[in-house]
Protein 1
Amino acid sequence: MKRRVGILTAGGDCPGLNATIRGVAKALYQRFDDDVEIIGILNGYQGLIDGDWRVMKPREFSGILTVGGTILGTKRTPFKLMRVVGDDQVDKVEAMKKNYKEMKLDCLLCLGGNGTHKTANLLAQEGLNTIGLPKTIDNDIYGTDVTFGFHTAVDIATEVIDRIHTTAGSHSRCMVVEVMGNKAGWLTLYSGIAGGADIILIPEMPYTIDNVCAAVEKRASEGKAFSIVAVAEGVFDAEEARMKKKERAAKRAEAGETTATNRIAHQIEKMTGCETRVCVPGHMQRGGSPSAYDRVLATRFGSYAAKLVAHEHYGVTVAMVNGHVTENPLEEIAGKSRLVPEGHGMLEVARSMGVCLG
Ligand code: F6P
């Protein structure tokens, strides 16, 4: 009997998804030759709910190592809605179980971030054989030192900061670069250090605008007429940090603030007199070809996932721990996230460079 392995990519895309799909597929074909069939489920869990899938041909996995995005398509199907029956009257969990059975899957590989892992765990609890693979530019999946996509995004954000540096210098401006990362500051911290940002603001460390402006003014007093601020999209100031999410949103709306980044830029210009501009690279950080680092990581993770399939070791997700690829039980990591902890070595490095952390 042929093994039937389902594979889907869910949540936001990132570079390295195709490299991981290829890694899994090649390793599976190596192990099982003709005795394996890979079933591609389209557009994440939505495809599993809708029964949107096809049997993949081995040649579909060739030539995709370097390709950005995901050949399977992806969609955000929020975990919190998985058990909610909507207007379409579809019981999503039951539909996923039914389609899994119809596809006659031995197991299902779920490539994605935190939400994807929560659903993979839910499906495992419902009796399906699931295996996770940790993807996200945010690098915030619990239990793994790194996720694929992160380092490519660091490279992209770093290039943005590099390019912003030269224009900031020419115009003697303060440039505020907004970096993605949702609630985690890893991407901003790494790209900020790699790009030599003068001020790095991350969600884990609420800032005060006085400290930010003091850093800009200190540089000016030392004859450095420009400053680079790397701001994580999810930052808030010390006052907002004491508020609940809804309260914070209401305060921002009342003040007519679109984003924290825009507010920071406005305040810097007003308080220091330094002409200030905002740069938002946005989804560019998720696009294009994966870096060599991510191609290697994706291939290592894909190869390991194939080994898990061979050993019928399910209900786990692939992880990197201290340089070794291993696995974590889904139930242990689902619902948790990995943020920049206080006292992390990278924060110490930034401080030792004289970087203002807000
Ligand atoms: O989780 C990856 C991520 O790019 C976050 O950094 C960002 O907050 C979010 O996705 C953006 O989501 P969307 O693609 O739905 O706009």
Protein 2
Amino acid sequence: METIINNTFINEGQISDILQKYSKPDQAQVKDVITKAQELKGLNLEDVAVLTGINDPLQLHELFETANFIKDTIYGNRLVIFAPLYISNLCANECTYCAFRAKNKGITRKVLNQEEIANETIALINQGHKRLLMVAGEAYPKQGFQYVLESIRTLYESKTDKGNIRRVNVNIAPLSTEEFRQLKNENIGTYQIFQETYHRETYSKVHLGGKKRDYNWRISSLHRAMEAGIDDVGIGVLFGLFDYRFELLAMMQHINELEKVFGVGPHTISVPRLEPATGSDIASHPPFAVSDLEFRKIVAILRLAVPYTGIIMSTRETAQMRRDTFALGVSQISAGSRTNPGGYEDEIENEIDGQFSLGDHRPLDEVIRDVAGMGYVPSFCTGCYRLGRTGQDFMDLAKPGAIKSHCGPNALSSFMEYLNDYASSETKKVGTELIEKTIKELEGLPKDRARKLVDRVINGQKDVFC
Ligand code: SAM
Ligand code: SF4
């Protein structure tokens, strides 16, 4: 029997009341929330409201320090790396902020065929990627939904002598429960979908046509995905459309609802900020623009509120903003991204036909060198998902120390594999030093595991993980 979905779990009245009550929190209230967050058990709506009310520089500093403490305790110095693969920019919807919207005449439409998708995948494998996020507009004219399923198969089947893609995550429009079952059968990793804005009035103002106009269909999509057996789901808000304080509390209501119904919340949270897009006015003039400081605050608050949920930072943001947010809780980043279908094989950065403009244009090798130079270990690991450690199982494992003892060694071995197979000599030098330094600083079981796994890769083995 299908789960009955309660579409009223976003309670706008409750959010407004709580935000008003804690709009100017006193020092004791902030201190209490920070102390509670240090226990790594997450926060409730009221706590999050208190944190959104912080403006005092000293309190902000404390918030950032706490976010850094949590990130460090749970995730260590690991940063998971992925790239988006846009298979089509055709779309039947009218999202006012997006270059792919149906009536936008300013871009060239492209629906990649399977051969072109294979070529894109090979181009990404040749850069060193192991995890992809498949993205598409909502219109599959020739084969319908079968196009999506076939494209995932192509992504997994494309191979070079050095490797293949080991995890395909998907960001496409909401599906029916039956379609989600078919998606699950293709062995996808995470299914992610962003509500864009949880505020109903704003939602209807910015979504002018197509199926995406239906707020309820979208808000209930992760229920259907989980109902269909997809354990790892990702949520997100497009920051800039409405008040970020409201969005954070609504996001908490969404998370609480998934936890209540399925016993586990989302695997990841994405924090896209509105970027300029061809043919979109609102994208260049966000009605609720989020400043850089507020953006860092958003990441830090999420790190305190849901410590075990991964936070994803895309190349929408500049290299500097990405660097700033690693310490505040970001655990996954995309790198070397193109948002125009066919953009990897062409090797041309075509901003006009992309979905939005990028803030970080650096190639993967440069991002990896930069990240490693900062002391973060880029991870290409896909072990958990391939060993069935997903959903609740992953969350059970994700106790302090446990992520570190599995994911830490796996990150190092997958990074070593990248360095052997794809890195420039400069990056290899920085990366090898970091791997050795990291192993040296480990103790006990994680140290033994890391040494053994890394040595196996040095001796020519691939795809080793525990
Ligand atoms: N078409 C599907 C959908 O809308 O759900 C799939 C994903 S869409 C291609 C990916 C995401 O890009 C959207 O959910 C939206 O949050 C984001 N996006 C769209 N326009 C953007 C812009 N101008 N700046 C930043 N992100 C944008
Ligand atoms: Fe289409 Fe998604 Fe862009 Fe909306 S955000 S126009 S649904 S691609």
Protein 3
Amino acid sequence: MSSDRFQVSDLRYRISILGFWILSSSWSLGTAFFLFIATTFLVSPTFAAAPTPVTSIFEPLSTPAQAIYEISLLVLAICAVIFLVVGGLLAYTIIRFRRRPGDEGREPPQVYGSNQIELAWTVIPILIVIVLILATTRTIYDVQSAVPPADALNATVVGHQWWWEIRYPKLGIVTANELHVPVTESSKRKPTFLKLESADVVHSFWVPQLAGKTDVIPNRRNVMWIEPTQPGTYVGNCAEYCGLQHARMLLRVIVHPPGDFEKWVAAQQEPAVDNPQVRAGRDAFFSTSCINCHAVKETKANGKFGPDLTHLMSRQTLGAGVISNTAENLRAWVRDPQHIKPGALMPNMQLTDDELNQVVAYLLSLK
Ligand code: CUA
């Protein structure tokens, strides 16, 4: 009777250990796999008009992102070794010491206390954790303590529900959702140092190929930097849940080849185009409440709640990356932003078709 009970509990015990290991391993592997698939395939199509929407930390193209990539390889390698050793020993033990004929009624040797074994399984994990702490701390220190060179570009990024305001205080430029920076060459470093601020709730600024994510917190100024080493368009998104349209608070960093960034700056510093052919639309725009929220440089429109429209048509997308910036999409957006991005602060202005056509014609002239 007592030997039956022993066998049943022994079997249950082994099954539960094996089950726990399978569950926990498949949970971690499954999560890693899901994150990989989600970041590689599922997220990508939502980046309107992005040429190469890479959102992987495993393809770094910027100095801080490269440092983070290297430390993550080390951490992943150490964890993989631990996983294989623990899983391997567990599988070996379960198979090697399984119940065999003749085991009935016999308990395996009972071991109570072994200084050597206990020392080993205490000291080895401590050493591993110390290695991880030291290596991670060094990377964090290297990234965070970087001193801006005298000619580094400075920009301020302000998180809003649900778009990014981007300011270049020294250059007198204000834009939205697209951070333009120069490329770093091996002969000439051109890092960009960012000040991160929030106009409302907590957001998080993350462009995976360029740097780690940094939270954007109200009443606080966080700093970070990027140093892209290849020209191109890099996509990112808000990485902290900030309300209904959090998932559509996309951003892109446009890295200009040498000499090209200066041209972009010069174009952005120009006042808004004043095209007499769209005078009707201009008047319609300035007589509605558009100007309470939007600014057009050197006009009476100086609202601060929405994106600056001075060079609206120089941008690739509308609604923080939700749709590409075409005449047709612009018209749909102005007619009813809530249809495209429910919950956004911009209301349906109830324009008549004529007014809509005029306002859109004026906006299209803001190149
Ligand atoms: Cu902003 Cu999430």
Protein 4
Amino acid sequence: MRIILIGPPGAGKGTQCQRLVEHLQIPHLSTGEMLRAAVKHKTPEGVLAERFMNEGQLVPDSIIVGMVTKRLESPDCRTGCLLDGFPRTRPQAETLDDLLERRAMSVDGVIELAVPRDELVRRMLARKRADDDPEIFSRRIASFEAQTTPLLDYYSRQGKLACIDGLGSADAIFARVKQAVRRFKWSSQGN
Ligand code: ADP
């Protein structure tokens, strides 16, 4: 299974991704984590990306696409993976579709974790991360709304989108995630 999880900053993607990769036994590809590791190790990509990340802006596609392509090509990703934080823009989604198509692969389903903006702000104030400064956090939400929400439409037109309610306990939300995955399994078997 090749699944994408999309949600605004603070939606709880990290928790749900962790549970889902354990449940499906597939690798977790988080571009946020890859970038934070690159920044920490001061790789050339990390040095370039850091400024954008600290400002709550998207890192240029050239950096992201290279990183993801390399990771998708590793043997453990052959049977599936969970993509978290990528794609984040329409061009990234098109690049991913091309990349997979050339390898006779495709995205099986996309899960949108929907959380209202006031709840996101409340959660951000309760946790602490370098890019969680209130002003920068607002910028990350604005970037999500402007650049990432068009993806929902892109995948919905392909009949691949499952929008789930991101409010409630982690267990309750995970039950919804699993339900969405079951639906993806049925529809990919039907094809
Ligand atoms: P969140 O989902 O909480 O916004 P992530 O951990 O996914 O955070 O990403 C942190 C930062 O890394 C983003 O704010 C952005 O600067 C950068 N980033 C991650 N994934 C991408 C991507 N696909 N395209 C561009 N920038 C990205």
